[in-house]
Amino acid sequence: MREFDYARADSPRQAVSTHGRSEQAAYLAGGTTLLDLVKIDIMRPDQVVDINRLDLNQIETLNDGRTRIGALVTNTALARDDRIKNEYAVLSEALLSGATTQLRNKATTAGNVMQRVRCPYFRDGVSSCNKREPGSGCAAIKGHNRSVHAVLGTSEQCIATHPSDMCVAMAAIGATVTVEGPDGQRDIGFLDFHLLPGDTPEREHALKPGELITHVTLDAPLENSRSGYLKLRDRASYQFALASSAVIVTLEGDTITNARVALGGVGTKPWRALEAEKALKGQKIGEASFTHAAGIAFKGATPYAHNAFKIPLGQQAIVRNLTTLTAQEDRRTS
Amino acid sequence: MSDHHNNEGLGVETFDARSPSRRRFLKTMGASSLAAATAPAWAQIAQAGQQQKEPVEPRDDGAPAEGEQQIQLTVNGVAHTLNVKPNAVLLDVLRDRLMLTGTKKGCDQGQCGACTLLVNDTAINSCLSLAVSHDGDEITTIEGLSQGDELHPVQVAFWAHDAYQCGYCTSGQIMSAVAILNDDNIGSDDASVREAMSGNICRCGAYKNILAAVQDARGKMEGAS
Amino acid sequence: MSDSIIGAGPKRIDGQRKVTGAAPYAADHHPDNMAYGYGVFSTIARGTVTGLDLDAARQSPGVIDIFHHDHFPELHRSPSSMAQGNKVEETRLPFEDNQVHYEGQFVALVVADTFENARAAARKVGVSYQRDDNAIANLDQGVKAHGTQKGQGNHERGDAAGNFDGAAHSIDVTYTTPVENHNPMEMHASVASWEGDRLTIFESSQGVVQQRGALSKIFGIPQEHIRVESPFIGSGFGSKLWMWPHAVAVSAAAREIGRPVQLVVPRQQMFTTTGHRPETRQRMRLATDERGRLVSLRHESINTTSFTDQYVETCGSVTKSLYSCPNLLVSHETTRVNRGTPTSMRAPGAAPGLFALESAIDEMALAAGVDPLEFRMNNYATRDESQDLDFSSNHIREATEKAAEKFGWQDRNPEVGSMRDGHEIIGYGMAACNWEAIKRECEARVSLRADGTAYVTCATQDIGTGTYTIIAQTVSELTGLPLEKITVRLGDTSYPKGPISGGSWTTATTLPAIAAATREAIKELKGYATGEKGDFAGVDSDSDSLTFENGQLTHDGQSVDYVDVLKGQKLASADGHAHTQGADDKYSYRSFGAHFVEVRWDPGISNLRVSRVVSAIDVGRVINSMTARNQVEGAIVMGLGMAHFEATEYDARNGRPVNNNYAEYVVPVHADQPPEVDVILLDYPDLAFNEFGARGIGEIGITGMAAAVANAVYHATGKRIRDLPIFKEKLMENVPEVQSA
pTM of the predicted model, to two decimals? Predict the structure, then answer.
């Protein structure tokens, strides 16, 4: 790692003021993304602001039924929190499907939101990559693009997937990201937080320079919903999703009254499949309606040379998840 | 279970490598595991590639130089005052400064688990940790698990079950196993253990024996409590 | 021999060091005043380094020196001869010139006071290149651009072509396997120190003697001035058999700066500059008669090699002799690509070769309408037809039958996709395994010491297979000393010359030397005892009536502890040195076995998993039942990875490795371990091979595994995957077609 200055912050305000608006400063939480990328010289901060001592470790239920998660709550702590397990099973399962025991012990909620892409052409430091070096091109589009490249939300400039599982669950649940920055505090809707690559793949999220995530607040759980996360990959653990689905459904008898579907491993951002949700609402449970909705979720998907299989695989992730959830009586939450 | 626990005359109190006031992860060993754990003298001389390591003495670097930060690390119960540069990695500081080389570097990117150790009783990848971030933390490495010839039940079980081949991932496997066995949130069935241990790659593929060792150690640790 | 320690399963004598973190691996060594190296690696696969901008790196904290092609001592190449004991795989020296032959090649080496300072400075080195856009990225491109070169290990008997056309049943199919990387947990590492013109290097090495020989040639100094130590290694699987450029670079750097230097090869460059299993393309043409007897067998393979060296993956090595067939052709060719030089990876040749052969045998059996197990039983060779020799010992039929019975092969419904369990379709598959048994010359020294211990030295290595322990078992067997009284030291060129730890040679090569040295020590002891000051003065020391058992010399009913013999004469030890020879050529010495695999394919989520493995292995006598079983179980896991996950991918446009890390190069983790793995060790001593009847066990377990999985996958899905690994998309329906770039 190149040299950098290090400062430990005692309050969010102090963290923000130490960081300033510099593009060359970085907040350090769990470090599982930042230090990895600094070691391979992809990120080169000259100032690291350690926020680990900030008092942002709480999970709180708000009066309006939402759940507020401190930025520094670890993935482990969040996954095993009783409220999360009971009311947001999809989130607990998504977290536990990600990374490993010891990485989840370090990785934080805010850090997970801020994960960066796994595209090898981004990480190698030399290939054309519009994210790393705007205007240089995208080596992945016509290169090797099997496992960490998207079929949804891609552009001519970038096709890398967002690697998080947690964020996929949050996209399904609905959430608000609270940030503190040089211009004060503000909220960002979760679905607006991550940006599509479009023509500016170097812009990955809605944060302005110097802004620090302090909380992620989950929407109140859908009443009488059941939810689950299904992750598909090559090996059985410790791998980023090839395709995954976060599904939340409510039923009345055999009829789906509400549904939330989000996808991982296939999109350039945590992918909310709103059209598929619409297609499910009011339908009878069963393979026909699930398959139909899954097809809609991938309408307009763009396959590349090595990842075309993600289109059927992602649909399978939706169908099986729905099938399992709607077959199980004991998964009903709240 | 109490942190320190006597087992009706037969057992032995487990050591506490760190502050005795902390909740201890290490549970009491029974008499039978103690017998197996007591290393014969020959083990100290067999295959020596170098001398047995000297006990780690507390280290005090004095005043930090420019660009360095002073930190306190309590490693295996020994308090050190160290001056480190901000970009120094915890794993490298342990290995290259404190000469605690039992913790291994397998990828330096959080992709293999060989560097797993306990920080404040929680298993983490030390390769993705800045030393300076751990100022004031209590760290347990593989060297702190056993005390002299007295092996931890997980170490005993790894030895007995041949739960390694080359031994390079072993420190990380053992540290993960210790953390998992003391974590009530992780199921005790084989599938749960396999999933929870999946952050520790063993390229030799000794997974079957590692699982057997972890489950055997569970019995030993529970049997003593 | 039921109470013999040979064949028992004592736990490892080095186990305590491994479970306490006390076992010293290469990078654990910190000689005083040690500096750290970090490499700068090429970012093009073919071309020329045209300039180096070192200003920023030189000003970086702690930097001592930066080496590169214009600043590196003049060295010599090693002749790279295994017979001379100086083999290297990549013969080109680091920084020899400004040419780049593969991406991830050393182009500079930064040396600094700490690891982090060295790495930070390395990031600041600017390298300019003249890129050659004709980089050859893969086998197909190599064949198209330059064709192939002939390799070695070819074989022909009868008329394979003439007996193919017109045969009752035949198949003509081509299999491909990708580049695989060994990925041992320990990254390659060296710590080099000089005292005057004497070099000591701690290396993660599977062959300290060969490395010493190579360093001697490269630095032009006597072997006696070089000490290579590798007491513990974080495994190698072949990648650490022969020295790679990093060890030359760090040795030179240490001499130039006058300080010890440590260099660890980063994980990314473990995919580029320390060898790999090359890509292969294998054409299989098989034919049988009406009854399903093989009448023609051709196995023609091409593998990739580098532009600097010729490495042949002998895919047809097993094909020559596993099955009986009068008309047979095995040929090996290579083609050059812009990758680093390949090297042996666990069961070289046989691992990819048996994927092709044992898949093809399955296809042939189907084409002939015969059950694959029965087909093999009908066609297994009873003697080595390639060498016209009997096998020293071959129990492949019993291995196949025993494993089949335990596995429950008779319950297999041969109809594809017919066995189901909930969402999952179950497939059963099998394959034979096979590996040559090799025994080379070896030296060893054993001392029986007056303190009641034995001290054993041999410059072989324990790479995790249990060599320390089986050597101690051997000495214990011959002396009666308990294991805890026996000290074994390996992995140091200051000991008598031992073999590389590879190819499953070590057990068969080392134990006879250990035994012979032990007997020499006992003989010397008897000489002391029968000398004029001895307890048995006047007795003929060669007499059968003077025995040595359980540490006691006995003659005519009178026993004396050997310690007392030595102490009585104020002697420190009785010593034996032995130099044993390699195997004879009276027989074909090979190991055999069979894998039976159950896979489960869930078509609803396109998930494939290996759920059950039963393997029966015939490796002669097993010396340590616990470590031997572990070897086979571990090889099964690696074979599962080969079948299912592992492939190093290169960008077809420029030869750039794209998944050269431990996250994206997928190896099995704990959760991939099949819930049931059952290894049967037949344990028939092969006494024609050596006195212990042991043939070695490291490789055989991986051979055939990928084919057994592929055959089971066919049984479950009806899809014959001839291109490893068996990624899910190869089994999926409705994958959209995409025009390749």
Answer: 0.95
Each residue's pLDDT tens digit, A84-134: 999 999 999 999 999 999 999 999 999 999 999 999 999 999 999 999 999
Residue C643: its chain A contacts at CB < 8 A?
none
Write out pLDDT tens, residues C32-82. Answer: 999 999 999 999 999 999 999 999 999 999 999 999 999 999 999 999 999
Q: Verify whether the Cβ–Cβ distance B43 to C637 is below 8 Å.
A: no
Instruction: Give A228-267 as a DSSP string.
Output: EEEEE-SSSSSS--SEEEEEEEEEETTEEEEEEEEEESSB
Domains located in chain A, CATH noted: 225-331 (3.30.390.50)
Q: Which two tokens stand for residue A77?
A: 């702590």
Task: For residue B110, give the nearest of A28, A32, A38 by CB distance.
Answer: A32
Q: Establish, for the pair of chains A and B, how many residue pairs have beta carbons separated by less than 8 Å.
A: 85
Of the residues C300, C333, C424, C699, only one is catalytic, namely C699
Backbone angles phi, psi at A238, to 5 degrees: 60, 50
- Chain C residues whose beta carbon lies within 8 Å of the beta carbon of residue A239: 663, 666
Sign of the CA dihedral running C200, C206, C210, C211: negative
Which residue in the block uniquely carries the two structure tokens 């430990």? A8
Among the partner-chain residues A35, A38, A238, the one whose CB lies closest to the CB of B198 is A238
Q: What is the pLDDT of residues C209-245, one digit of tens each?
A: 999 999 999 999 999 999 999 999 999 999 999 999 9
Contact A28 B199 (CB under 8 A): no
What residue spans define the domains of chain C?
15-21+439-580, 31-133+186-234+240-271, 280-437+586-730
Distance CA C312, CA A246 (A): 48
Phi, psi angle pair for C640, to nearest 5°: -65, -40
Instruction: State whether residue C672 sits within 8 Å of chain A by CB.
Output: yes
Which value, in Å, is the radius of gyration of the alpha carbons in chain C?
27
Site from C43, C729, C732 to mutate, A interface, most A CB atoms within 10 angstroms = C729
Domain C15-21+439-580: assigned CATH number: 3.30.365.10
Q: Using CA of residue A263, residue A266, residue A270, residue A276, what is the dihedral sign? A: negative
Closest Cα in chain B, distance from residue A277 (Å) = 32
What class does CATH assign to C280-437+586-730?
A: alpha beta
Residue C699 annotated in active site: yes
Residues 71-90 of A with CB under 8 A from B: 80
CB pairs under 8 A between A and C: 110
Per-residue pLDDT at C287 exceeds 80 = yes
Cα–Cα distance for residue pair A88/C94, rounded to 1 Å: 56
Over 80: is that where the pLDDT of B37 sits? no
**In terms of DSSP H, where are the helices of C124-207?**
139-146
Burial class (CB in 10 A: 0-12, 13-18, 19+), B152: buried
Q: What is the ipTM of this complex?
A: 0.98
Chain A residues touching B198 at Cβ < 8 A: 100-101, 236-238
Domain C31-133+186-234+240-271 carries which CATH code? 3.90.1170.50
For residue B170, the chain C residues in CB contact (below 8 A) are: 18-19, 21
Q: Closest to B167 (Cβ–Cβ): which among C30, C232, C267?
A: C232
| pLDDT tens digits along C368-396 | 999 999 999 999 999 999 999 999 999 99
Token readout for A100 is 């490993």
Query: Whole-angstrom Cα distance, residue A187 to residue B89?
Result: 34
Helix axes C506-530, C467-479, angle to 10 degrees: 30
C74 in contact with A, Cβ within 8 Å = no
Same fold flag, C15-21+439-580 and C31-133+186-234+240-271: no
- Residue of B104, B117, B124, B197 to mutate, interface with A, max A Cβ within 10 Å: B124
